[in-house]
Write a structure and sequence with these properties.
single chain; 206 residues; alpha+beta; 7 helices
Length: 206
């Protein structure tokens, strides 16, 4: 199992949510405990044994609770994705001013459920085939029923990998072939560049 991630960085908005989560004046101890205990199951979509309605869990300051809970989920997902050990995770959480009791509870829950979190992240990572290679060939059409002039045709092959549906955790390779004109290829490349810039912007990469 592997993940290709850079150094773990949380956005300022997530940081604000975590600081509020650690603030005892905003999130009472009982509410904090409930939020931390149910958070892994929300990521794992295993809701059976918990109430997941935040209004029921925390009747006051519902907007702040939702903000804190979202930040908590992002923290767990990012930490599991980066395979942080309990010491590294504790160090990250400490920077958001959690008191010792809250720090211990959150670290214990993360350590206990990290394997499950990484397992579901791995499955999600491969639920949609990941493109791992691409090849192309340039052909020329001499004549067709719609055009008599020479024009280029690009043969594109995308190679992707995806997890199998069984429990073995195996990987299958899929190939996707298509033809496109020069204009269509330029549009595809432009779309991929736009997507890359958007992802870099969301990740805070400069």
């Amino acid at each position: 199992m592997y993940f290709l991630f850079t150094e773990m960085k949380l956005s300022p908005k997530v940081g604000i949510g975590l600081k509020r989560l650690g603030n005892q004046n905003l999130i009472a101890s009982d509410s904090f405990k409930k939020l931390v205990e149910i958070s892994p199951d929300i990521v794992l979509k295993n809701h059976g044994s918990h109430k997941t309605d935040l209004k029921e869990l925390c009747t006051s300051k519902s907007d702040i609770v939702k903000e804190c809970f979202a930040a908590l989920l992002i923290l767990l997902v990012e930490a599991a994705s980066h395979d942080l050990d309990d010491k590294s995770f504790r160090s990250v959480v400490e920077s958001y001013n959690f008191n010792p009791d809250r720090l211990k509870l959150l670290t214990d829950v993360y350590e206990k459920r990290k394997k499950d979190l990484r397992s579901v992240l791995f499955r999600l990572q491969h639920s949609i085939p990941q493109i791992i290679d691409v090849s192309w060939r340039l052909d020329f059409c001499i004549k067709s029923s719609t055009c008599s002039d020479n024009f280029p045709i690009f043969f594109i092959q995308l190679i992707g990998e995806a997890a199998t549906d069984n429990t073995s955790g195996g990987i299958i390779i899929k190939k996707y072939n298509f033809l496109c004109s020069l204009e269509e290829l330029e549009e595809l490349v432009s779309g991929l560049k736009d997507a890359t810039r958007h992802i870099e912007s969301l990740a805070g990469i400069k």
